[in-house]
TrEMBL record:
Gene3D superfamilies to which the protein is assigned, alphabetical: Periplasmic binding protein-like II
Protein's name in the database: Nitrate ABC transporter substrate-binding protein
Keyword presence, Signal: yes
Homology family: Belongs to the bacterial solute-binding protein SsuA/TauA family.
Compartments where located: Periplasm
Keywords (A to Z) from UniProt: Signal
Segments crossing the lipid bilayer: none
Highest taxon, organism lineage: Bacteria
Organism: Acidithiobacillus sulfuriphilus
GO cellular component: periplasmic space
Length: 333
């Protein structure tokens, strides 16, 4: 698909058996660590590490299993159809809240401008949202970005009129004039900015203003973590080796990633500009309680309150229950 794949959080917990029947029979028997993924530029180090067999150096064999629907990843991991998966943190929270046995072992990336609130030129800042219609896909990262932006300007959802629109349809809704403000992600953001010769719309607020709020993680089945800690560590080390390769051989890495997500190298490079992979030296901070939106404590608090209000979860799980930071801490020493 080659673009950001976002799905409603609750769909991660349903419709699983039929979708993964092809994986479940062999998941436990295979010595290969299976990681469920969707096409997303931020998983570049994983694509590179698999293609170049970088995991082998750390004593682990890895197979990336592509899912067309990212909503199935949490359930697939919990059922051992795959041993781990790449989940957005807003998927992790409801999974843990419903008792699924998964934990984040490593942060992968965060959106750094790839998600944005776009508006007509008459809307100068977030304060101008008051009394206006805002189009976005409810229950997706767009809602979390909007909630945070409103809070920073001392506003709330009660100050706007919410319009539920699929992310891919936000450009057409804004183009029609039905709403002056929309929240979506790339490549839809660029599509909106190009409307009317690029003179009508602009970015008012983006994920660059809230680094870490919209983030991807590597989450393992908790039983697998307990039974195979060396393999979990090896996966993380191989991923880090993939990041190093990207830093030292950028063009070659982009070519690998482009092929993996079925886009041109130029498109892959453009998409990669909107995300940030988190280096090992900064990973521990993600697991630390701080006011930064890079911290799961802060981003999780924002996300879970929205999910609770929307009745996507029945309670807010304690943040430490969503992750196991031991591997990252051990490697960072």
């Amino acid at each position: 698909m080659g673009i950001i794949v976002r799905t409603h959080i609750l769909r991660a917990l349903v419709a699983l058996p039929l979708a993964i029947v092809g994986f479940s029979a062999t998941a436990n028997a295979s010595p290969i660590v299976k990681i469920g993924v969707v096409n997303w530029i931020g998983y570049g180090p994983l694509y590179v590490a698999e293609k170049l067999d970088l995991f082998d150096k750390y004593g682990v064999k890895v197979k990336l299993v592509n899912f067309s629907d990212g909503a199935l990843l949490a359930g697939a991991t919990a059922s051992n159809a795959v041993n781990a998966s790449t989940l957005t943190y807003d998927q992790v929270i409801p999974a843990v809240a419903t008792g699924l046995p998964i934990k984040v072992v490593m942060p992968i990336d965060y959106s750094d401008g790839a998600d944005a609130i776009v508006a007509t030129d008459s809307i100068k800042n977030v304060s101008d949202f008051k009394g206006n219609k805002v189009a976005y896909n409810f229950g997706t990262p767009s809602e979390f970005l909007l909630a945070y932006a409103l809070k920073q300007s001392h506003l709330g959802f009660h100050d706007i009129t919410k319009v539920n629109i699929p992310a891919g349809e936000v450009p057409s809704v804004l183009a029609s004039g039905a709403t002056p403000i929309g929240v979506t992600w790339q490549p839809h953001v660029s599509q909106i900015l190009s409307l009317d010769g690029g003179k009508k719309f602009h970015v008012v607020y983006s994920s660059k203003d809230a680094p870490g709020l919209i983030s991807d993680t590597l989450a393992f089945n908790t039983n697998f973590i307990q039974s195979n800690p060396q393999q979990v560590r090896g996966v993380i080390e191989g991923y880090i080796a993939g990041m190093r390769y990207m830093q030292n051989h950028y063009n070659e890495a982009i070519a690998i990633i482009a092929k993996a997500i079925h886009v041109s190298p130029a498109s892959a490079a453009a998409q990669y500009a909107g995300v940030k992979n988190i280096p090992l030296r900064n990973m521990e901070a993600v697991f630390t309680n701080s006011k930064s939106t890079l911290s799961y404590y802060t981003s999780g608090n924002i996300i879970s309150k929205i999910q609770l209000k929307d009745k996507d979860i029945s309670h807010i799980p304690a943040t430490p229950l969503t992750f196991d930071d031991g591997f990252v801490k051990g490697l960072a020493k």
